[in-house]
Amino acid sequence: MKHIKKKIMNIKRKGDFAEYYAVTWLWDHGYEVFQNSGCTGPVDMIAMNKKGDMELIDVKTFKKQTHGYQHMSNLPRSRTKKQVKLGVRILGFNPETRELRFVEHKDE
Question: Which fold has domain 2-102?
C-alpha cells in the first residue's frame, strides 16, 4: 500500500484514484456508471440503478487531519449552489481505508 500512496501524492492523481474506486464500488452496488469525459463541471459521474433511477455524483477525497481522516458523515466542503439545484450527491472516499460512503447532506 505504501507504493500506491507515493504514486498518488499529486492532488489530481488523488482525485482520479478516488473516482476509479467509486466506479468499481458503484458497480458492486448494482449501478451502471457514466463518467464525466471532461475535467470540469458539477458532477464526476452519473450512476443508474437497475430500475433506471439516476444519481448525479461528485466524488470527494477526505483530507487527513491530526487524528486520522475526517468522519465519513461530516465532510466540511458543501455542494455548490448548482450542485444543490441539480440534486448532486457527494460520495466520500477515505484513501487510507478505501471506504466509500454517500455523505448526508444538510439543507444548504
Answer: Trna Endonuclease; Chain: A, domain 1 (3.40.1350)
Domain boundaries, the chain: 2-102
**CA nearest neighbour of 58 among 72, 41, 70:** 41
Q: In what order do the strands lie in the sheet with 32-35?
A: 32-35, 45-48, 54-61, 89-94, 99-102
In terms of Cα–Cα distance, which of 104, 28, 32, 102 is closest to 60?
102
For 18-43, the pLDDT digits (tens) are 999 999 999 999 999 999 887 788 99
**Spans in the chain with pLDDT lower than 70:** 1-12, 64-77, 107-108
C-alpha cell at 108: 444548504
| Cα gap 1→26, rounded to integer Å | 22
